Please model this.
Amino acid sequence: MKKNVYIIFLIILIIGIPFFYYLSIDTLVSLKYETEFGECISNITGTDLCLQYDIFLGLTYFLALLTLIFIIFYKKIVKKEKIISPINLNSAFDDLKLSFEKGLTIENHKAGIRYLGLEKVKEWKSKFGYTFNIYSNDHFIENKPHFHFDNKGKGVSCKMSFEGKIFESNGKYEIDRKVLKELRYFLSLEKTQETIIYEWNTKNPKLKYKKKAYTQQRIKKIAKLVLNQS
Model:
């Protein structure tokens, strides 16, 4: 439940407690003045005031209990919205590819092993020339969003799905097979998926892509297919 919805429900519950309690007290007054001693039926309205009192008092207790549950289990009821901290796709892929060039394998990276370079801290500059681009007011291809993957120096220009399927290749040359495997592994990473979907939805609000389409299970499946490639 979203926090604003939770707050609205909690306010309704808090208001409801004194409201139904007042109605139960009001019913007691009616029970005293509108019925014969020991009777429950109102001489004015014909209503069963005993039943009415039980209902209003029961609702009072029920709302009080529900309010208590809402307050105690706040953290479980309210789901915190995940804040996306987009990564720079270009530099992230560049760094990953550099790790592979230094001898790290996809299997090792998947196992949590990282390459630690002793380079000077400076402004990032592309080492391999590969760039990701997601354009505004774009369109779906095969009912899916896409990004542009280019390398002008190598004559590569492609439109690809977020899983790494090549929709169009308009460059002079195709993507190197080794780079494609590394790219597909990069796309299987959760942070990459979060960023690329976030950027697409930001730039193409009329063609928003559901983030839930990329579950952990699906991401692992993509990674497994990448690792099984020759």
Summary: Residues 3-33 form the longest helix (31 residues). The chain has eight helices and four strands. Residues 3-77 form one domain.
